[in-house]
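The aim of this short unit is practical: by the end, you should be able to scan a pair of folded records and say something sensible about each. We start with the first protein, listed as its amino acid sequence and then its structure tokens.
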Amino acid sequence: MFRKVHHIVRTHGVSGLLHRSIAYVYRRGLRPYIPKQFVRYGGIRICYDRSWSDCLVPRTWLAPDELYDDRPGYEAALVAGLNETVVLGDRIVIVGAGLGVTAVVAALRAGPLGTVECFEASKQYVEVIQKTAARNKAANVIVRHAVVAKSIFVYGSGCDLGPVMSASQLPPCDVLQLDCEGAELDVLRDMTIQPRVILVETHGLFGAPTESVASLLAKRGYTVSDRGPAEPDPSCHCIKNDIRVLLASNNNYSESR
């Protein structure tokens, strides 16, 4: 401890030590007892909270996993697509559910007679999705721990990947959402289901460019609409990295319920 304090004083001075000490007292002594606020992504309560006082202190006082602000534009194009296409009683399959925001949106749209089945590669994020669903009372969300097709870029711990399953094992559904960080081309090539609607977040930076995904959807008999960048982004991250959302409609949809 003395060595750490000595290093801080040498590097940042006495004022730096004082600043870090106050931050430590806030994080460890005060923050755990301060009432929490919901954090909303895309209008949905996610599984993380923030203390109401966090906005009153310097952000440098907080650890990276405590820096949560509302993100109204989170997965905006996917959320809009689900709100537009999901109807009561629909069966929805989601490959790559992330924080569970789109799973909750789909579950609320489909209602108690509908189902949302998620396939998530990361064990850590399986738990995150389940917590987000519980927080929003979305009891019709089921989460499977599995990699569909192959893992290209998976959030969470690299050692907690689920078993690999073929896209041909995906269950029949009315709406399919793919947000699988580059594996979308492999899923679309190998799947045997023909949902009424397919929503795909493309990832050109991971080898699944929008043009290729759109072409494959068209070959499968879908009418494809480009809904633009996945999220509103002042830094143009989605535009630069070709992260867009495609909505594909199957006018000949006839899978039985």
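Turning to the second protein, read its sequence before its tokens, just as you did above.
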Amino acid sequence: MRLFVAIALPAEAAAELDRVVAPLRPAWPELRWTGVDAWHLTLAFLGEVDEVVTGKLAPRLERAARRHAPVSLSLGGAGAFPAAARARVLWTGIHGDRRGLGLLAGSVAAGARRAGAPPAGERRGYQPHLTVARCRVPADVSSLVDALTGFAGTLWVASEIYLIHSRLEARPRYEVLGTWPLRPAGHNPDVL
């Protein structure tokens, strides 16, 4: 199974971003625009994972989640990987508690590694973003990056993580396999 661990985007945050992105889509039909229903913040992409290892992920991800308090985040700005002039991915950025988000992503990656599903591309380091569109061939999306640069979404709180099975079809389909809450604010996981 093709798996990743992510934070879901609240409907309000998705609606804010969609209001900015929707008018841009018609002028760029050559891009594969991600749908609002597919928007998420990936913490760790695990790639192909066999069922035995998948069964070992749940306790590791639960442990990783309860070590971290909820994080306050917002969407904003834009960029492209590897660069706007030759993009493969157009993204909007993540603002707010990026340190807390990075620590959570690190714990998720460590748990996945211990379960036998090391995250793909782990050596690059965690780069929080939300994918808005993909380019079939490298494209100059500088004007799209410029159009989205001023976007600043409302702050929201992420309080759980999800293990998601990604099915690659004409359009990717996602199935949630598990959900784990982050620890309640003020709770110390080291004190019983």
